[in-house]
Every structure is written in structure tokens, then in C-alpha cells.
Amino acid sequence: MFTGIIESVGRVKTMQPVGGDIRLVIEANDLDFSDISLGDSIASNGICLTVVDLGSNYYAVDVSRETIARTALQDLKAGDVVNLEKAMLPTTRFGGHIVSGHVDGVGVVSKLKQDARSIYIEIEIPAELAHYTATKGSITLDGISLTTNLVRDNIVCLNIIPHTAQVTNIAKHWLVGDKVNVEVDLVARYLERLLNKKTDASPAPSAITESFLADNGFMR
């Protein structure tokens, strides 16, 4: 589980095909590696990936074909900058929102311009994800927890403050036409599931009936 508050930016060192999958090595000189172990999760551009190799300033992950197909990782190349966040701890300050690191789809930067000291950005997200978003709601883009200014059909409009732009890959690396990983609000997904009338089969009736309680001495 993550918060969407980026801890560091790293750079893709190598991408090596391995049996149809990809072994990805990411260097991160500014990330604290002292509490990272093999098997830990690191969100890399918003994708929850498991550390399989580790050095003093790098980590390696294996990326499955499923993840490659469903994320913007398919366009990633050596030298690209990626946003990094280690899995949250119970003591972590919750500055963003609940982020699972499970990417829902890929969006495209459709507009980008300076707006006073901020950067105004419009992201075209897959149409099937649009109803999970809301004006002044939360969305995760490349692992960054962001607040939407406005949602217009399947266009998400945002203003990125200077701090966020500088400590992520936005300021120097997002361009119109670039693809970004999109994770919608997890709460919205569960609410849809709860409210959807076309639910799975009704739950089986409970075996704890009044006669069961009486027979087992609970009703005296």
C-alpha cells in the first residue's frame, strides 16, 4: 500500500528481456535503501513491483507480460526518469490518498501549459475509467497522488504546483502525447461494487440460527 507521495526519482539503468518478461534495474541515488530488503514493494511510476535484487543505489524487479501490457511501462526505455515510493509503514504520515500500486489503465497527456507558477495539465484517460473520477477528487498518475480541478468526459484537468513538479518526473519529462499510468480512487471502485445491483450470487444463509444458539447454550 502507498500514499502517492513521491520519495525520490530514479533512472532506468537497464531493461533486459528474460523469458518473455523484463528484468528492470532502476538507479536511485537519493532514495534511502537502508530499510529495503529483497521481496519488498516499491511503486515505480505507480506500479507496485517486487524487489528481486538490490545494491547500494539500485534495485531490480521482474515485470510480467500482464504488467507490461496494461501499463505505460511498454514505452519505458533506459535513461528514463521514474517516480519512486516505498511501501508505507504504519507510522507513515498519510499525506496523499490510498494507492494500491495496481494500475487501472494508461492515460495520455493531451494539454500542458504554464499557469502562473503552476503547470496546467489535461490527461485523457480511458473512457471506462472516467466514472471513477470526480472534480476535486483524487487520482494517481505515474504514482503521484493528485487532486483533479475538473473532470470533463474522460479528460482530467489538474494544476501541478512547483514543488510537485520538481520532485517528480513532471517538470522535465512530461510532454504532450506522453503516456502515464493511471490508478483511480480505490474507494470509488469498492463503492461501485457495493452499489451495483448486478452483484454475484447472494451470500449463503448463516448457520448461526436461533435454534443453533439455543442448542449450544447461548440462550438461557
Description:
This protein has a 7-stranded antiparallel β-sheet. The N and C termini lie far apart (46 Å). A hairpin with a 2-residue loop joins strand 3 and strand 4. The chain is 15% helix and 37% strand. The mean pLDDT is 90.
Instruction: State the end-to-end distance.
Output: 46 Å
The description of the largest β-sheet is:
7 strands, antiparallel
Mean pLDDT: 90
- State the secondary-structure class: mainly beta
What would a concise description of this structure say?
With 220 residues, the protein is mostly beta strands. The protein has five helices and 13 strands. The strands form two sheets. It has a seven-stranded antiparallel sheet.
